[in-house]
Amino acid sequence: MPTGRRIVLAAALGAPFIRTARAEPVRMRVSVDTAPGHARTVSIADFLKKLEAASQGEIAPQLFDSGRLLADRDVIRALVLGQIEMAAPGTWLIAAYVPEADFGQLPVFYGQPIAVTHGAIDGIPGDLVNDQICRKLRVTIPGRWIDLGFTNWYGTRKPLASLDDLRGLKVRNSGGFAQPWRARFFGAIPTTADWPDVPLALAQGNFDALQSTAESCASARLWDDGLRYGLIDHQTMCEYIPMISETFWAGLRPALKTLVTDLWAANIGAYRANTAAAQDRAEKELRARGVKLTVVPPEDLAEQRKRMIADQDEVAREMRIAPAIVARVTEAVTAIN
């Protein structure tokens, strides 16, 4: 963020917020299906706490975590129906409505540094996707997306020493087209399961491995359910997109709308940094709990990415990502590399 913008923002957030006369606070129900200690849940909880304080109680948020209110697959419909006011579903779920939201799963991102993903989602490709989401789903996106972290492979009984070891395994994914495609690319058998169902399914042997992040595995204590191996290939940087219902947003006075977006802008950098740190801590925790993690060498990642990119046009068609978005993504990645 430019220095001038930081100064203006700091002044705006530091200025006293004058609450208007209102009989009742504005209720703000927020749903996530991750556990209280998960980085997304922690970030959203922090944002809501700051929003309530900065609005002097004019906005009264209530966070429902761990899927207590809704699974993430149901939050978009709930936003449209006015059953909740805010959520942050994963791009792989939003892709059911706006396929381009999941462009970060394209083969060109496989094994790439986080800066490559940020350059695309914070640039023109991300702006184009945000416009589509707001228009099609009748929501407001208050700012930049929340990092979940790099997705890797994690397994139970069979050691994972190389990508060849994925062949024949039944691998859980969280939905969409790209994750199952990537599993099949390496000879695995994809299956989809909601995150709250993963621990029991893993313990019961319903699948052999899963595509997930270190932090998600650690926050759910999956070592208690049989997790023993990990294959670290940074196959994609998964993202959550913050979404506020159009009805709720329309009911806020301008000063409150500005407060929401300014607070998000002021904190999203820290939330991303915290997520990265949480992923690092989670890897250490997994190792300490006896999970053997193998890092795929950079040259293998580059080789596999080259093979995947040869199929990128086909993958994009199957993901229903418009060629114009693919072109903008290619331009963004090329500019960074």
Give a concise summary.
The chain is α/β, with parallel strands linked by helices.
CATH architecture of the domain at 150-237 and 287-322: 3-Layer(aba) Sandwich
Poorly predicted residue ranges: 1-13
Mean of pLDDT: 92
What would CATH call the class of the domain at 150-237 and 287-322?
Answer: Alpha Beta
Q: Work out the number of β strands.
A: 11
| Structural class designation | alpha/beta
Radius of gyration from the alpha-carbon trace, in angstroms:
20 Å
Main sheet makeup: 6 strands, mixed
Features of this protein?
337 residues; alpha/beta; D-Maltodextrin-Binding Protein, domain 2; five-stranded mixed beta sheet; globular; disordered N terminus
Task: Please provide a written account of the structure.
With 337 residues, the protein is of the alpha/beta class. It has a domain of 124 residues: D-Maltodextrin-Binding Protein, domain 2. The chain has 14 helices and eleven strands. The strands form two sheets. Strands 7-6-8-5-9-11 form a six-stranded mixed sheet, with helices on both faces. A five-stranded mixed sheet has the order 2-1-3-10-4, sandwiched between helices. The chain is globular and about 60 Å long. 45% of the residues are buried. The N terminus is likely disordered.
